[in-house]
Design brief:
This protein is of the alpha+beta class and about 375 residues long. About 25% of the residues lie in helices and about 25% in strands.
Length: about 375
């Protein structure tokens, strides 16, 4: 378990959740030791809102002895899409190929010829972006995905319900009827109820390319499925050892290892993102208030196009794939792929959590 921590883990402060005998508890991790914070704040969300990071918790011991859960609980799970040029191109390919992986290579060639390298240097919402849009419309290659890639408004969507995310070591799910899908390794900001980022973690925003490619209106089915959102291993709080600039410049590595001896490595470099993370937070917050805060996926540069089996069909998952998402200052998130119907059913929702906390007499703590 300690192997999942960042390379400089002694310098950082972390929040997370563990499964104890009585139920889930928020924890603080310092110097490799975990402290149960449930009697100070019953949820990670409440702990963040109260900024009770210096309060003394109950020592649980070495993190290696604990069962980690997803590090968030009552936060909404939001995601920003098409924030990198490569992901913009791949979404257009999905759309024009109508979710058919076999047609993707032909569409990719036509689109790259029409755009050239210009999309990578265009500032979203700028006059240059408007000029590129006009040229692509004239060529018949414009797309709703390019609108959110280079237009003034980012794509912000709800990835999954409160409490539905899975953590380090848990199975991650894809729909059993999907034939073209992939992981999306991302930096995930943790934002408090006032819209202020307080830290970051790693995430896998599992994506079904065949569903979304058939229609953008199928985004919900493509993104929100049982066990389809993984977060972890822990939230690293912003401090002198880890800042927003570290998140802006993070390198996120992906490793996929299949039972068929398949191996795929990829990297997403946050310094190539088209929109600043704080702007994405602002756009996610909009005119709304999230009293329990939210987690915000920042998007990914990684879009696997290498053929796994048949030539021209690109990459798709197979059951049993081990997916590792890592970044030096955030550690490593590891999950095994299975179908959403075979992954453990999500049954512990908000009502169950409130009942559990009430039975443990944890709901009467002062704020």
């Amino acid at each position: 378990m300690r192997d999942c921590l960042p390379a400089d883990w002694p310098a950082g402060r972390y929040l997370g959740r563990v499964q104890g005998a009585a139920g889930p508890s928020p924890i603080m991790v310092e110097d490799g030791l975990a402290y149960d914070m449930a009697e100070i704040a019953p949820t990670v969300s409440a702990l963040i809102e109260r900024k009770a990071f210096d309060s003394p918790g109950k020592l649980l011991g070495d993190i290696d002895t604990l069962t980690l859960l997803s590090p968030i609980d009552l936060q909404c799970v939001k995601a920003s899409g098409v924030t990198f040029a490569v992901s913009a191109l791949e979404r257009v390919i999905e759309e024009q190929a109508r979710g058919d992986g076999a047609k993707a290579a032909e569409v990719r060639g036509r689109l790259e010829t029409a755009i050239g390298g210009s999309i990578r240097s265009v500032v979203p919402g700028s006059p240059e972006a408007a000029a590129l849009k006009a040229a692509l419309i004239a060529d018949g290659m414009w797309s709703q995905y390019l609108e959110v890639a280079i237009g003034p408004d980012a794509e912000i969507f709800t990835k999954s319900p409160v409490l539905s995310t899975v953590g380090w070591g848990a199975p991650v799910g894809i729909r059993s009827d999907s034939t073209w899908n992939n992981p999306e390794p991302e930096i995930v900001l943790i934002v408090d109820g006032h819209g202020q980022p307080v830290g970051a973690t790693l995430g896998n925003d599992v994506n079904l390319r065949d569903f979304e490619g058939r229609s953008a209106l199928l985004l919900g089915k493509a993104k929100d499925n049982n066990a389809s959102c993984a977060l972890g291993p822990l939230i690293r709080l912003f401090d002198d050892s880890f800042t927003m600039d570290d998140a802006r410049g993070a390198e996120v590595d992906l490793l996929i290892e299949g039972r068929d001896n398949y191996r795929l490595e990829g990297r997403s470099s946050m310094n190539q993102i088209s929109r600043d993370p704080e702007d994405l937070v602002r756009q996610a917050l909009s005119e709304h208030h999230y009293p329990d805060g939210f987690a915000l996926f920042l998007g990914t540069l990684f879009a696997p196009t290498d053929d796994r089996d048949e030539p021209g069909r690109g990459f798709t998952h197979k059951i049993g794939d081990i997916v590792s998402v890592s970044s030096p200052k955030l550690g490593t998130l590891v999950n095994e792929v299975m179908t959403s119907q075979d992954a453990p059913a999500w049954t512990f929702g908000i009502s169950a959590l409130m009942q559990n906390l009430a039975e443990r007499a944890l709901l009467g703590n002062p704020s």
